[in-house]
């Protein structure tokens, strides 16, 4: 039985409910009246159920699809303005005991180079990331209780937060590690992590079990219930994601939204972020082996549908996607992107020789952070290195209620301008600095409150004089 409040994976991600949802969406894909009523509800910015959003995803009426895209764009503008938050992944170790068929870190892959960073090597990686200008990281590690026990992850987080190189600092460490126990989530919380991110990969249980033949990750229920345990362990911000291409995208989409509804129903707060990766080439992985690949058009539609269904949830896109695809989906709802990323272990300090490849996937966007910052600004976006909410204790329901009250706008724009100013002052190329300074001047006038504007003006001057880390 489908029950969003249940703590059992198969009840809150219920297979029959998903199948019913897909049939319902199919039956109504040209039902103008219903689609109009769903779009009307979405325009109230209160989100949509998995069933309603699935009808929009299936919709075959071109004019209604255009309305959907326009609405996604409007929601993006109203909630996130033109800001795009920047982050980078940091791979700690690619040792892994699991057998995931879509990832080159699976334990049977004997020719990929296995690496694990020492604390000394982590320091060097973090300094390299700080020297690029990054403030926000996503930690990545395979699951291996011997090589990468939780103690190693905790020690690494401590190391990362302790490094202050020149004006650099990593101010928020998000963590993407294997499903674990409530006790371990408590320890991660105590270590000061930002968001705990865990991708479901696929919500289809049978497919999940096929794709995860061995290792602890093969337990579908344990994996699917991990975000609940993280919340029980005190982590307020959790991130969801599926790997599009493994199963039918419509199935995954419904499952993803049911998962969001479950978190909201049980904990009163939905996911902090949703990531939308697609299967892509890697060491011994050929995406063509998976039958469910989605076109760029459908990918854009998924992004738009997620945006209207969960307006308060940040959406993340990585360098798995090319410049052109990123360009296409940014305005439809993506709020965070990675830049200057390396997906190999130890890749920031020095490039890896080809015979020592340890990358999890091939990048489709190889530009530097400076190039990405400039590209964003030239398209009219405001790159932000803001980490303020988490550091001000605005997490979980406090973050969501701030978001829902509309007050978040009094924080985000000033914080984006001040953190961009830090970036321009400390790390940018001349061209980027020039474009960025103009952008800051222009956007100062968008700060609604005179008082806040004058505080920001004063702080921008202080940043030029070497003072860092202002925030609202
Ligand atoms: S997806 Fe994660 S758990 Fe699976 S093989 Fe890759 S690193 Fe290991
Ligand atoms: S103020 Fe909060 S919501 Fe806004 S960009 Fe910063 S961290 Fe994100």
What does the model show?
- It contains 20 helices and 9 strands.
- The chain has 472 residues and is α/β, with parallel strands linked by helices.
- Strands 1, 2, 3, 4, 5, 6, 7, 8 and 9 form a 9-stranded parallel beta sheet that branches.
- Helix 14 (323-330) links the parallel strand 7 (314-317) and strand 8 (336-338).
- The longest helix has 19 residues, at 62-80.
- It is globular and about 60 Å long.
- The N and C termini lie far apart (45 Å).
- The mean pLDDT is 95.
- It binds iron/sulfur cluster (2 copies).
- One iron/sulfur cluster binds next to helix 16 and helix 18.
Key structural traits:
single chain; alpha/beta; TIM Barrel; 9 strands; 48% helix; binds iron/sulfur cluster
C-alpha end-to-end distance = 45 Å
| CATH-derived architecture of the largest domain | Alpha-Beta Barrel
CATH-wise, what's the superfamily of the largest domain? Aldolase class I
CATH topology of the largest domain: TIM Barrel
Label the overall shape: globular
Tell me the total number of β-strands. Answer: 9
The radius of gyration is 21 Å
Number of helical segments with 4 or more residues:
20
Average pLDDT confidence is 95
**How much beta, percentage-wise?**
5-15%
What is the H/E string? HHHHHEHEHEHEHHHEHEHEHEHEHHHHH
